[in-house]
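May I ask for a single protein's sequence together with how it folds?
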Amino acid sequence: MDNQLCIVLDFGGQYNQLIARRVRECGVYCEILNYRTPIEEIRKRNPMGIIFTGGPNSVYDEESPHISGEIFELGIPILGICYGCQLMAYTLGGEVSAAPVSEYGKTETYYDKSCVLFGAVENMPDSAVSWMSHTDYISRLPEGFAVTAHTKDCPTAAMANKEKRLYAVQFHPEVNHTEYGSDMINSFLKNVCGFSGDWVMDNFIEKTVAELREKIGDKKVVLGLSGGVDSSVAAGLLSRAVGKQLTCVFVDQGLMRKDEGDFVEETFTRLFDMNFVRVNCQKQFLEKLRGVTDPERKRVIIGEEFFKVFWDKVREEADGGFFAQGTIYPDRIESGKGKESGNGSTAVIKTHHNQVKMPDDIKFDGVIEPLGDLFKDEVRRVGEMLGIPRELVWRQPFPGPGLGVRIIGEITEEKIKILQEADAVFRDEIRKSGIEDQLKQFFAVLPDVRTVGVMGDHRTYDHLIAIRAITTDDFMTADWARIPYDVLARVSNRLTNEVEHVNRVVYDITSKPPGTVEWE
């Protein structure tokens, strides 16, 4: 990567990826590294700026993440956020103590606009709302620092050492709740670090296609295509690069949404030059799932069977060459396999479906991850530029086990059909209502609950359908969507009239927390 680099040092903050996304939105390429990354390795990467993330710990706890004071002697501008702010103060000789009053949520914050972080922001007021989340505070500044922001209860909401280009904020500028937060980050990057903003997506396709052609040459490539955003965009790039040298294996386990398998096949055989291999195996999956009701057990069975089917088909198609994955940057971070894991210290948050070990008997010349440096929003932009249909590019998050985790209890062919039809009706009405873009995710659930109903002059005892719709910025928290009553009424009417074996509809009005987005 030959772009100017900003490093985000992660101290366990929940917003580490959000910070990186905000940096990239400013046109600056950045990578997330673990705080244990050796100082010498950071120096070799030649970053123009460093950002410390937040974290759940107290800096005066010996077990908490710390960093050598040597990093402040590199001459590289640093911005500390929340825990990163306190860590900067503590490491440089200041004092951090338990706060007399903890601050959480939206907090009126007063800014010193002689500080470039705030003063260079267009139309920045003297005070605005910031998002706070801290129980400790800086009780004594390190030498050479000045207070640049405060709140009613926090005397040091921001501090700066202009001479050494060290800046820190107690609040979270990366979240949308902080007014002018993104502008503050942009001011640090452009006015303090001197970034030119050379990270643009316009030439990404041309550059990546050229690199893929050079690496692949005349060899073959096999890609697992799920129909999701990441694998679809990876397929589009590889197809443009090597055409028929690419084989995409699409496993349809029968747990996708209504007609989705046909849509994926039609799209890729029409738009791209590739070998498209579809494996229809619903009966095989249902046999393995017979009688299973425990949600975790269902997930394990579906995952294991998927990879068995997939690798069996790959064995038929593989003949040397390369194996391609739709891995994106957050996958590499969460699976502990990114560039930042070189020192072996990155914790594995979760193992992603596209970050797993292939069987020992399958041999490839290498693995290709054309999207490995991108975040999801950047992947979507590439997909749009490739001409992939909006339905795929802006596809909502869909669980790996598919409808298998939206059917509570045993999975049967009859239940799959009921849920597919119900989900299709719900999605159709949301599209017609014009509120689709306001919702981050919406879907139907079959809770395996039967209720008494009346249809015509007859008593029924049939299925209940639950519908779920949420709004969220980051999926860490979510609120149930306030869908207009008239839309809900049309959904309910259509579900009970058009979908066989459905006689009741309920709307899930649970936020996250205490609930989760999915039911299982």
